[in-house]
Amino acid sequence: MGNDALNVEHSSGHSAEVFRETQESEQFRRLKRKHRSFVLPVTAACLLWYLTYVLLAGYAPDFMATPVFGSVNIGILLGLAQVATTFIITMVYVSYANKHLDPDAAAIRDRLETKEGVR
Amino acid sequence: MLQLTVAPPAAPGDPILNIAIFGVFVAITMVIVFRASRNNKTAADYYAAGRSFTGGQNGSAIAGDYLSAASFLGIVGAIALNGYDGFLYSIGFLVAWVVALLLVAELLRNTGKFTMADVLAFRLKQRPVRIAAAISTLVVCFFYLLAQMAGAGGLVALLLGINDRIGQSVVIAVVGALMILYVLVGGMKGTTWVQIIKAVLLIAGAGIMTIWVLALNGFNLSTLLDNAVETSGNPAVLAPGLQYGLSDITRLDFLSLGLALVLGTAALPHVLMRFYTVPTAKEARKSVVWAIWLIGIFYLFTLVLGYGASALIGAERIAAAPGGPNSAAPLLAFELGGSVLLGIISAIAFATILAVVAGLTITAAASFSHDIYASVVKKGNPAPGAEVKVARRTVVVIGIVAILGGIGANGQNVAFLVALAFAVAASANLPTIVYSLFWKKFTTQGALWSMYGGLASAIILISLSPVVSGGERSMIQGVDFAIFPLSNPGIVSIPLAFFLGWLGSVLDRSTEDPAKQTEMEVRSLTGVGAEKSVAH
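The joint structure predicted for all components is written out below.
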C-alpha cells in the first residue's frame, strides 16, 4: 500500500516498448519541443531580468533612487515591474499550456492508458 | 529618558486577549483537523491527503505554507528598518515561483508519488539517490524549522510580555506540542486545512492593515513614502543600499542572497510535496497560479506595511522593542487598531508559524519514513501500515528537535535564517531536479556529487561565514573563524552544485538504464498513470 512508487516503475517488457515507441512518435516529439521551447527560454529570460534588477539594486543605487513621480523612484517602480512580469508570465504560460500542451499530452495519455494498458 | 519612551511598547495590548484569540483559532482548526483526518490510513492519505485537493485549495495551502513568519514578520520588519533592501526579499521570494511553475510543478506531479526523492531516484540508482535526497530534505527542513521556531520566541516576547528566556522557551514548547498534535492526527489533510485557513486569515489581515495604512496616507504611495522618510529622517530608506550597499562585500552578499531566493523556492521539499496533494498535473499548475497571485498580492501588502510601520512607529522604536525587527508588524497593528487588532494579527502570526512548522514536519517525516525507512531499510517492502507508523513517530522526534532548536535559536533574525534554508535548497536540490527532468545524460554519480557537493559547500561556507562567528550578531560570540566573507553561500555553492552535477555525469563510467529515461520523459510530460496512484 502506498509503496507502489518503488515497484511500479519496473515496467514490463510491453510497457517499456510502448514508452519507447511513444518517445519516438511525432506527436510526443512535438509536445516535448513545444514544452521546452517555451519553458526554457522564458525561465532564462525571467531570471536574467531578475538578475538585472538585483545588480541594479546592488551596484546602481543612485539610479534606483531617481524620483519618477513624487517620492516614488525608479527602484520601487522596477520592483513593482518584477511583480507585474511574474503575473504576466504566469497568465501567458497558462494560456499557452492550455492551448498547445494539454491537448497533445491528453491524447498521448489516453492512448497509452486505454489502448496499451500502461499504468 | 530614551528608556522611558521605549518602555511602553514592551507589551502592548492585552496578553490575555492575545491568548484568547489564538485559542479560538486553535480550537476551530483542531475540530477541522479531527474531522478531516477520519480516514488517514494509507501512505497516500497521510502524506498526500489522498490527492483530493483542488488547485485553488492547494494554491491557498501553498501560500499558507510559503508565507511564513519570515515573510510576514521578517519582511515587514526588514522594510521598516532597512527600507528598500527589505523589499528586495519580497521580489526574490515571488519571482522564484516562475521557476517552480515552468520547470518543476507539473513534471514533478506527473513523475513522483510522495517525496522529492521519488522524482530524483526515478531513473537513477534508488538507494544512494534516495538517501542523498532524504538527507538534504531533512537539512533544509531543519533550517527552516529553526527559523520558524525562533520567530515564535520573538513574537511571544512582544505579545505576551514574556521577556525572560525560560518563559519564552515554555511558549515555544507549547507551539511545538500543538504542531505535533496537528500533524500526528491530521496528516497532510489536516496540515493542508490549517494552511488554507491561515492563508486566508493572513492575507485578509494584512490586506485590512494595508488599506488602513493607505487610507491614513490618502491612498497615495508617494505620501506614504514621504512620511516614512520624515519619521526616519533618512531619504535613503527609499532606495537600495541601506543594508547591502555598505561595501563590495555586502553588495556581493546581496547578489548571493538574490540567487538563493530565486533558485531556492522550486527546490524546497515542503513546497514540492504540496504538488502531490492534487489529482493531476493540470491541478498542480492551477495550484501554482493561485499561489503566485496570493503570494504576489501579499508581498505588495508587505511593502505598504513595512513603510507604514516605518512612518507610523519609526525604525528606532521597532528596533528597541522586544523581538526587534520582527515586532514591526504587530506594533503597526497596535498603532492602527489597538489591542483588538494586535490580538488578531498576533494570533495570525502564531497561526502562521504553526501552519508552516506543521508543513515542514510532515515533509521531513514523509522523507524519513518513505525514502529511508520504506525504500532503503525495508527495500520497498515495509509491513502493511508500518510506513505511516514510522512517519508518525518521526513527527514526534522532529517536533522535539524543533522545540529544542527553536529555544536555541531564539533571538536570531528570522528572514535571514530562512534565506539560509533557501541557499541550501537551491544548492543541494535544484541542480539535480533540473538535470533529472531535462538532461538525458544525467547519471547517479552526477546526482550524488551535485547533492552532497551542494549541501556540504553551502553548510561549510555558512559555518565559516560571519553568520556563525566573528560578527556583531554572530551565533557564536567571542571567536572568529569566519574566513568566508559572505553571509549567504548561494553565489558559490549553487554554481558549484550545477557544475558538479555535470562533471559527475560526464565522468561516470556506468550508464543508466535508457528505458527508465524514456519512461520518465513520457510520464513527466503526459501524466500517464499519474492519476491512478490512489484509486487502486
